[in-house]
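Annotated sample (chain length 432).
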Amino acid sequence: MTYYSLNGKAKHVNFETAVRKGLAEDKGLYFPDHISALPKSFYDTIENLSPTEIGYQVIKQFVGDEIPENDLKTIISETLDFKFPVVSVEENVGSLELYHGPTLAFKDVGARFMARCLGYFNTSQKNTEKVTVLVATSGDTGGAVANGFYNVEGVNVVILYPSGKVSHIQEQQLTTLGGNIEAIEVIGTFDDCQAMVKKAFLDKEFKGKRNLTSANSINVARWLPQMFYFFLAYKQLKSLDKKLVFSVPSGNYGNICAGMMAQKLGLPISHFVAGTNENDIVPEYLKTGIYTAKPSVATISNAMDVGDPSNFIRIQKIHDNDDTTLKQNLSAYCYSDTETEDAMIQLYKTHNYIADPHGAIGYLALKKYQESNPDTYGVFLETAHPCKFLDVIPKSIVDAVNIPQSIKAIMDKEKKSILLTTYTELKEYLLK
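Output written by the structure step:
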């Protein structure tokens, strides 16, 4: 398998190079040069397969022979060593809970897979090159990356996050580990953080001084393994005699893009729904046909506060850059903070289900789609544990939220971060 830049001006690279570089030299995102659907026999027997075997069959074509089968299966086994339950919420609606991993967020899957791939490449005889993982976070990415890469040999991690725009628990998860994990607190928005990361990748002054890669979903090793849990959900729902719809809370669109890749592999998903907050770039695009990046707006669903979603270009490529085909496969709806709060209250009062703000938006978007598509079974993705958002969850629900011991253990740890504002400051820090 080789990967090419969606900007079309960089050479093709193998999987390892795509993982190490993160972003192509022409500023484009890497994309696999071909996608082969899995055989019908795989889907016929998926209920008999372990998570590791499912993950291996899904990802092996994208890794190729660069990681031997036994090593790749070990990486997948360690990535998927927690549960991914689809919990029934109401008739024809389920919640795919993706928060049962070590940092209680869906990004644990991609972060753990990428960390272990880099660890394999760094400890194999063919390559001992050390790397710095430079990543921007709007919330959960930081904690997942910090945990996934903690003490991985040959890897340093620098995490940029917008000051005052992540929850206290999210901040604790990415600023208290120490070791090979460094936190940079940026005076600005997530978009500012992401712009700094992209600029650093393309800055030639780092060549020979610091080898940078990304652990955002722009990196193929963060993006592609997110396919796993769509397959694991299907395994649980295979017996249903209804069209399957996934509603994905969306900010940078890596998660829903991975679901669409799973669909390209033959997973029988009827339709995707993107739920967004007031950062409504994609819903507006689907209405008007015009993509307009905007400055991000701060909301209570902070992980989706993205004004220029990087992965949307991959979504367009998956649909052959055909707007008509894309619109047939994707619906998108946006919601205010007030509507999000009301949804959290409704889910708890009516169904005794506690959703975080992102999951609540996924639920709202799903219900909107099902109004005109009732003969479907809808799954909304619950992407992070509600305890991570105690500062914005309605007060009537807060006392019912369980606080896992792993969170209690970090609440009083000392925060360690570097405060900066400009790219120049970041560059000086990285080169010192």
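Annotation: The chain has 19 helices and 14 strands.
Annotation: The chain has a mean pLDDT of 94.
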